[in-house]
Amino acid sequence: MTATTAPAAPRGLTSRGPVNPWVRFLARRLFRFAASLLGLMVMAFVLIQLIPGDPARNSLGITASAQSVAQRRVELGLDKSLLDQFGHFVGGVFTGDLGTSFNLGLPVSEIIGQRWAETARLAVLAFLLAVVVAVPLGAAIAAATSGGRRRFLDMAFTSVTGLAYSIPGFLLAVGLSYVFAVRMKLLPIAGTDTVSGYVLPVIALAVGPAAALARIVRLETLRVLGEDFVRTARSKRLPTLRVFLRHVIPNTLTPTLSMGGLMLGGLLAGTILVETIFVLPGLGSTLTQSVTTKDYPMVQALVLVTGGAVLLINLVVDMLIAVADPRSTILEG
Amino acid sequence: MTRRRLPAFLRTPLGISGAAGVAVLAVIAVVAPILFEDQATTGKVADAQLPPSAEYWLGTDSLGRDVFARVLVATRLSLELSLAATALCVVAGVVIGVLPVVLGRRLGRLVTAVVDFAVAFPGLLLALFLIVIFGAGSSGAVLAVGLSGAPFFARLTHTLASGIAQRDYIAASRMLRVGPVRLLVRHFLPNVAEPIVLNATIIFASVLQAFAALSFLGLGVQPPSYDWGQLFNEGLARIYVNPGQALGAAAAIVFAGLSFSALGEALSHAAGRRSGQGRRKTESAATAVSPAAERDEFAETSARLRVSGLRVEVLPEGTAESFEAVREVSFEIEAGESVGIVGESGSGKSLTASAIAGLLPTGAYATAGRIDFGGRDLRPLTVSQRAKALGTSISMVFQDPMTALNPSMRVGAQLAEVVQVHEGADRKSAMARAVGRLGQVRIPAPARRARQFPHEMSGGMRQRAVIGIGVMGSPQLIIADEPTTALDVTVQRQVLDLLEQVRADNDASLMLISHDLGVVAQRCQRALVMYGGTIVEELTTDMLRETAAHPYTRALLDCVPEVMSEPGGHLVTIPGTPPEPSAMSEGCPFAARCVSADDRCRSERPRLEAQGRAGHRVACWYPQVMVKADTLVGPGGGGA
After folding, report:
1. How far off is chain B from A36, nearest CA to CA, in Å?
2. B388: how many CB neighbours lie within 10 A of its CB?
3. Is the previous residue joined to A55 through a cis bond, with omega within 30 degrees of 0?
4. Which residues of A, range 250-289, sit inside 8 Å of B by Cβ?
5. Which of A240, A265, A326 minimises the CB distance to B383?
6. Of A287, A325, A326, the CB nearest to B128
7. Which of A153, A190, B161, B516 could form a disulfide with A279 if both were Cys (CB 3.0 to 4.6 A apart)?
8. CB under 8 Å to B24, separation ≥6 — which residues?
């Protein structure tokens, strides 16, 4: 994805034959998505194969009896040939049978079914918060400091976002919960039984991505402000606000969307830490526990689900960019 | 050591603080384990769980060990492990990144596809996945963190390498059948080294944080070893009893992260500046008051636009000194008149037009003079005052139709918004008028075109749409800045015809800016010739051929084949180059290129003064008065 929107050849859309460029674009993107999903499945599958030594022995520990190790080998399907194992695995993915969690003794799909909503809610809320704060902030700072004016404001913005971006999310989460929950007792320490329980986790998740996004939006806005068409808009003597809303902001959308897609994927990863700290029953804390306790079927399934979610987000973002800026995206294919 | 010898990145507060922070960390990493090992590893059980005190700055842990000492000692392990992971990340990334070059097309594509696939996933997710394979613990975490960053570096290396692969000398080496390994070592690696090192510094901070996160989750460093993340994890369990350990470890992680990212950012800024992309901003210059601005020439006059004593100063980005790009420019445009402004690039013609329209680019300021339009001086007005005073009465048609239209807005809407804003027209009637205007500027099927985006139109079509925007309101003055430069010759003609037609239809004045005297001679009633930021000659176009008196105008005439219309005549160019606007001398700006220049021309600037015929003014000490047309030959051309 390029940040620049170089003017593409205007006739390229029609000169490539009868196939609608949208159809070609969609087909290509969907193919890529399917290939990536296949790659993800292979990745989740080989996870078990790549574990050095005997995964069954690993997961049970050195004190386990030979009998229970043998039984677990059967559970994991390790007694069959590699091809059989893969066939069984892929079949399982399509029928929703992802195995049974070692820890909880429940079908993995059932656990994920119960817990995915928590993670999705956190990630989406944090994403919305980050966008709502970062986009107007970045654009406003760009408008106020373009052409080297108000250097102090510029420096303050750069330092604050730099600081916010450099503090790891898990430290921020602990810091926030210490100040607001432990000390001031304003908000709950853990759990999301009430709405207020979401406040701290969502803020902890959103701060870093918001800082990064605000920086991108500022840079993009500054770039667009220097474009000829903004001068055209000014020559129409439109009110400054209208110039911004109609002519500047829409043209910063493509890079903002690309960044937003990366951000949402990153937020999914961020939930791993934040859920662990705030003891929230989502996929993130489940992943941490499963990795720590070597609950391999659970890890496999979580890799598939989270990875699949990331791929799906990327696909949706690509589509959105294509709609927002058909010129650059579709022609690049 | 002089200031000049300091590396560029150390000259900014960011670079200094980053470098200082990293230096402090390095010293602690080396010294702390030697000095504080004892306090950090052995404690008195009697002193367990003490709060912070003068003896124990951050208190003690459950075994009575000094937490502050432990945080300091942990610096070494934290940095070592992050360094190892970063090194692994860079090495693995570079190897994977150059693989496509070495492996040939098929396998190379596969590698690229795998890298693209892996890059899509957030680093922490990959790291957790890899931890499952490598197992929890220091070495497992180094492998996991290092390899999870490798796809990013592989992509970076690949991008850099493909950029280099397209350069000519690589193609030449290929032709000489230089082997791939030699290509790599001799050509690729030296060229990618700098950006790789730079990015390694930048991601060191995130590697450090990722490591802290893994240790915090209990998947990284295992007790009895300890790094900051592990200390934080331990401290968190006792945060209610004694927050010292959690706070100390957290502070260390944040401090290290900030120091390294500040250093990385400063380094990349310095690298960017070296390659000429850096931006420095400067204070704005003092404004000069021109004597002409004091003179009140604003008597009753029929002129629609009257510019007097206009000066424009430009402050280029990255410099502290401004220069005058337009000086003492005065002229008038009558109602319904077409006036051409001719000059080479850098002559100040576009800046003059922009100043009149109130659209000076960033860093350019109209510092003196008056711009009287409709009985009001426009120069001191703010954007909103201008909008109120002018409405749509001055419109501008821009040079490059490819960039002058908003790519994300339908063309019709870009026209319609003019009347929506200024006349309060509703969307429907505004759109109907926009379609009408598009038809007026001879865009076929205007209703369909209005719904298109600019990228769906050809260059000529777009330029017509730009003109359509210019005449959407009710302009009294249309300023067209090189409206045909970006178009091919056949379209140029149509566009100029169109401009003349819309000017006549709207009973507007036209100010046509061009570098082409031929175009101005054909299309305008009067011409203003600009050179070096001033008007050097002003005359009607019908007297151009016979009466032009300034040597520069004469030279321009020699460059115009149509005007000369001399069969067999040579196309003449003006020897020399226009002066740098920033390095203007005291004398006549054209002196350096003028065949008849003498000492007076080089030391004293001629003023624009009336010549023999009405409406003819020239700024030259030795105007070439009344020369016969057939003797007008350029310095290099022979007579017919």
Report:
1. 6
2. 11
3. no
4. 250-251, 253, 265-266, 268-270, 272-273, 276, 287-288
5. A240
6. A287
7. A190
8. B259
pTM: 0.78
3-state secondary structure B470-514: HCCCCCCEEEEECCCCCCCHHHHHHHHHHHHHHHHHHCCEEEEEE
Mean residue pLDDT of chain B comes to: 81
Distance CA(B370)–CA(B376), nearest Å, equals 9
The answer to whether B422 faces chain A, any CB pair under 8 Å, is: yes
Q: Is the dihedral of CA A153, A154, A155, A156 positive or negative?
A: positive
Q: What is the DSSP string of B236-261?
A: HHTTTT-THHHHHHHHHHHHHHHHHH
What's the rounded Cα separation, in Å, for the pair B478 and A235? 11
Residue type at B556? Answer: L
Query: How many C-alpha atoms does B50 have within 13 Å on its Cβ side?
Result: 21
Name the token pair of B182. Answer: 């030699």
What is the rounded distance in angstroms from the CA atom of residue A248 to the CA atom of residue B406? 9
Place of tokens 């790094």: B227
Per-residue confidence (pLDDT) for residue B640, from 0 to 100: 33
Please give the helix or strand (H or E) that residue A209 lies within, else none.
helix A196-225
Shortest Cα–Cα distance, A195 to chain B (Å): 25
DSSP bridge partners of B491? none
Which string of b and e fits B37-57 if b means at least 16 CB within 10 Å? Answer: eebbbebeeebeebebeeebe
The per-residue pLDDT string of chain A (333 residues; one tens digit each, 9 = 90 and over) reads: 344 444 444 444 444 456 777 888 888 889 989 999 999 999 888 888 888 877 888 788 878 888 888 888 887 777 788 888 888 888 888 888 888 888 888 899 999 999 999 999 999 999 999 999 999 999 999 988 877 778 889 889 988 998 888 888 888 888 888 888 878 887 777 666 677 788 889 999 999 999 999 999 998 999 898 888 999 998 898 888 899 888 998 888 888 888 888 888 888 888 988 998 888 889 999 999 999 888 888 999 999 999 999 999 989 888 888 887 766 555 554
Closest residue by Cα to residue A291 from A59, A79, A132: A59
What distance in Å separates the CA atoms of residue A2 and residue B451, rounded to the nearest whole number? 27
Q: Is A164 on the interface with B (CB under 8 A)?
A: no
| Mutation choice for B interface testing from A223, A232, A294 by most B CBs within 10 A | A232
Taking only the tens place, the pLDDT of each residue in B206-257 is 899 899 999 988 899 998 889 999 999 888 888 777 788 888 999 999 999 9
The DSSP result for B275-330, as a single string, is TT------PPPPPP--HHHHS----S--EEEEEEEEEEEE--TT-S--EEEEEEEE
Tokens 């002193």 -> residue: B47
b/e per residue A40-49 (b: at least 16 CB within 10 A):
bbebbbebbe
Give the up-direction half-sphere exposure of residue B487: CA atoms within 13 A in the CB hemisphere: 21
String of DSSP letters for B18-56: HHHHHHHHHHHHHHHHHHHHHHHH---GGGTTPPP-SSS
**B396: amino acid identity, one letter:** M
Contact residues, chain B, for A246 at CB < 8 Å: 406, 409, 417
